[in-house]
Specification:
With 252 residues, the protein is an alpha/beta fold. The chain contains eleven helices and eleven strands. The chain has helices spanning 3-18, 28-32, 51-54, 57-62, 64-80, 85-95, 110-114, 141-148, 177-187, 206-212, 239-251; strands spanning 22-26, 45-46, 49-50, 101-104, 120-121, 124-130, 137-139, 164-167, 190-194, 216-220, 233-235. The strands form three sheets. It has a six-stranded parallel β-sheet, with helices on both faces. β9 (190-194), α10 (206-212) and β10 form a beta-alpha-beta unit. The radius of gyration is 19 Å and the shape is elongated. Bound molecules: zinc ion. Zinc ion is lined by residues 131, 133-134, 136, 156, 158-159, 161. Zinc ion binds at residues 131, 133-134, 136, 156, 158-159, 161.
């Protein structure tokens, strides 16, 4: 980080000290530093199919074997992924009381692994599977074990229907976490947006929501975001670098 970056980091530290209800919002950029691909990115292809097609509820319904070939691979990647310095710094900011809660677009569960308390997983989680037929919900290992044993599609241990990862697929409604997110945003006076272009629903709406309450926006992201014109602080720095440095400033 250059000198200018540190000036803006000072301002972000000051805003965090003054904030009463700061939230951290994270997107794929925070997890790519843990080696997880950004499936929505320009290289987000699986064979000839686009991510939006594969991760669609219709794909799960009509071509479950193809769907699970993709998700089985994602679960395997996830098994190897560890929280990075950005996840750890966010959990520490929470523990010290600077940040009230994490809202995330990510489904990898790495905020929980890093120690964040009750992160709001807006798109659900890959750490669990669910059954739409009977309501069963359990750990992803139930599906992973069946796939490893050669099953093309993992089945519900309660009723035998096809299991689904507990993520929000394209074509599905967003989960109750969204209602909770709006309750958090209504109190929020500082929203720190990390590793997200902020162009996807629903997070694209979040900065405006905070600004309309008189709150401030900070952006930590490589590349432009939808909130750049409104941001009080804008850091063009990896979160794994910026957030530990921010933590250092706040602790000293
Ligand atoms: Zn079931």
């Amino acid at each position: 980080m250059g000198t200018a970056g540190y000036d803006r980091l000072d301002l972000l530290a000051q805003l965090l000290r003054e904030a009463r209800h700061a939230l951290v919002l994270t997107g794929a950029g925070v997890s790519t530093e843990s080696g997880l691909p950004d499936y929505r990115g320009s290289d987000g292809l699986w064979g000839a199919r686009r991510f939006e097609e594969l991760a669609h509820i219709e794909m799960w319904r009509s071509e479950p074997e193809e769907f699970w070939a993709f998700y089985g691979r994602r679960l395997a990647h996830l098994g190897e992924a560890q929280p990075n310095a950005g996840h750890v710094a966010i959990a520490e900011l929470e523990r010290l009381g600077f940040v009230r809660r994490v809202l995330t677009q990510n489904v990898d569960g790495l905020h929980r692994s890093a120690g964040s308390v009750a992160p709001l997983e807006l798109h659900g989680t890959l750490a669990e599977v669910e059954c739409l037929a009977c309501g069963f919900r359990g750990p992803k290992e139930i599906a992973a074990a069946q796939l490893e044993a050669g099953a093309p599609v993992p089945l519900c241990p309660a009723c035998g229907s096809n299991l689904k990862p507990a993520v929000v697929l394209f074509g599905e409604l967003l989960p109750p976490a969204l209602g909770e997110a709006h309750a958090e945003l209504a109190q929020c006076d500082l929203l720190i947006c990390c590793g997200s272009s902020l162009r996807v629903f629903p997070v694209a709406m979040f900065p405006e929501r905070v600004l309309s309450n008189g709150g401030e926006i900070a952006v930590v992201n490589l590349g432009p975001t939808g909130a750049d014109p409104q941001a009080r602080v804008r850091l063009e720095v990896r979160t794994g670098e910026a957030l530990p440095a921010l933590l250092d400033l706040l602790e000293n």
